[in-house]
Design a protein that fits this description.
This protein has about 190 residues and is α+β, with helices and mostly antiparallel strands. It has two helices and ten strands; from the N terminus they run βββββββαβββα. It folds into two domains: about 40 residues, Single Sheet (Ubiquitin Ligase Nedd4, Chain: W), CATH 2.20.70.10; about 130 residues, Nucleoside Triphosphate Pyrophosphohydrolase. It is elongated and about 60 Å long.
């Protein structure tokens, strides 16, 4: 992650130091004294199901361009996580979805992300690639391109749904399997990034 160098409020230089009473170093403006907190970003997405198949999007953008993922992206200000997951499914796959419930909460500390992943159903069978997708498809579970998935958390989320099945029972969200941070995946065939 790129660190800020100048204060967004006044343009002054930012220095790392520990403000009085704080236990962490923060970016502090040398001109106006404003403390700039850096916090993890929220990513929202969904494992979308339809008639025994799962929706995947082949990425048209970096990182991991050319690889497959679930529809997911950054939560916008002013929207709930569920609204964000619905929006991302439409933006990336032109999919209209209904959320079943929260499937998983994953932490990716090395890049400062918290991922909220939902299980969802297609409300209508029509899908099409949005601007961030090269193509979209509904995959039978046996035909998921496991070696061409973009991110470790996509593996985790898909395997979680496989383990739970597609029933309508209550979901108990999982956290990082084994409590570990996901390891970056090695380059896969079809990746441009």
């Amino acid at each position: 992650m790129e660190e800020l160098r100048f204060c967004p409020a006044c343009g002054g230089d930012l220095l790392r130091r520990r403000p009085e009473g704080d236990e962490h170093e923060r970016l502090v403006c040398t001109a106006c004294g404003r403390i700039h907190y850096q916090n993890p970003v929220l990513v929202v997405g969904s494992v979308c199901l339809h008639e025994g198949r799962v929706l995947l999007c082949r990425r048209a953008i970096a990182p991991q361009k050319g690889l497959w993922t679930i529809p997911a992206g950054f939560l916008e200000l002013g929207e709930s996580p569920e609204e964000g997951a619905v929006r991302e499914a439409f933006e990336e796959a032109r999919a209209r979805i209904r959320i079943d419930g929260l499937l998983a909460v994953y932490s990716v500390r090395r890049i400062g992300q918290i991922q909220l992943i939902y299980r969802a159903r297609l409300a209508a069978p029509e899908i099409a690639a949005g601007p961030e997708s090269l193509e979209v498809a509904l995959f039978d579970w046996r035909r998921i391109p496991w070696d061409a998935l973009a991110f470790p958390t996509v593996h985790w989320a898909l395997r979680r749904v496989m383990a739970l099945g597609e029933g309508d029972g209550p979901l108990v969200p999982e956290a990082n399997p084994g409590g570990r941070d996901p390891e970056p995946l090695p380059p896969a065939r079809g990746a441009d990034a």
